[in-house]
Amino acid sequence: MLASFRWIALALVLAAAPAIAQTTPSAATPAAMPNTSATAAALSSGGETYKLGTGDKVRIIVYGEPDLGGEFVIDSGGYLRFPLVGQIKASDMTAHEVEGEIGAALKNGYVKDPHVNVEVETYRPFYIIGEVNKPGEYPYVTGLNAINAVALAGGYTYRADEDDVYIRRKGGTTEVKQPANQSTQVMPGDIVRIAERFF
Question: Strands, DSSP E only, in 133-196?
Fold first, then answer.
C-alpha cells in the first residue's frame, strides 16, 4: 500500500514538472539580451539625429509633383536651391526638419497639400591628416570607424602613434582624443589627425 502511494506521488511530481519549468525565468531569454539592432540604429549617421551639412547630397521627392523632385547638394552656405521656392536652409538640420521647411514653403501658394520626403543620397567627405601614407579627403561610407579611415588613407607611416586618433567634428577647432580602434566612429565632415609617436 505504501509503495502505491509513493508511485502516485512520483507520477504527480513528474506531471507538474513541465508547468514549473515554464514559469521559471531563464537568464538567456531575449528580453535579457542587449538590443544590438537598436544600438546600431542609434549610431547610424543617417538616422533622425544626423545633421546635414555642406557637401551632403540629398534626394527630394514631392509626392504627386515629379517635376519638383531630384538630387540636390547643400552648398557652402548651408542651403539647397529648390524649384519654385528658391533657397532652403539645410545645414545643421535633420532630413525630417528639411522636409518640414520645404513643405511649408511649397504650401505658401505653390502646392495645396505637399508631402515631401528627404533622404541622404551621399554624405559629405571626411578628411584624414598627419601620419598616414595618403592624407587627404575621402568619401564617407556608413559605419566608418578609425581603423577603416586609416586603411583608406594607405595605413600608418612608421612614425605614427597607432594607439590614438584626434577628431574634430563638423569643422570645429577642438580636437577630441579617442582610441584608434573599431569603437571610434568617424562621421561625415570629420577631420581625423594621426599624431607622431614619441620614441
Answer: 136-138, 164-168, 176-179, 191-194
**Three cell numbers, residue 199:** 620614441
pLDDT of amino acid 172:
78
Cα–Cα distance measured from residue 189 to residue 125, given in angstroms and rounded to the nearest whole number:
6
Query: Could you give the angle at the alpha carbon of 34 between the alpha carbons of 29 and 39, nearest 5°?
Result: 150
Residue 89 exposure: Cα atoms within 13 Å on the Cβ side:
6
pTM greater than 0.85: no
Question: Strands 70-73, 136-138: parallel, antiparallel or unpaired by DSSP?
Answer: unpaired
Which residues have CB under 8 Å from 19's CB, separation 6+? Answer: none
Rounded CA-CA distance 155/199 in Å is 19
What confidence score (pLDDT) does residue 109 get?
Answer: 87
CA angle 32, 34, 40 (to 5 degrees): 155
Closest CA to 192 of 152, 159, 158: 152
pLDDT tens digits, one per residue of 43-93 = 344 446 889 999 999 999 999 998 899 999 999 999 999 999 999 999 999
Strands 126-130 and 164-168: unpaired
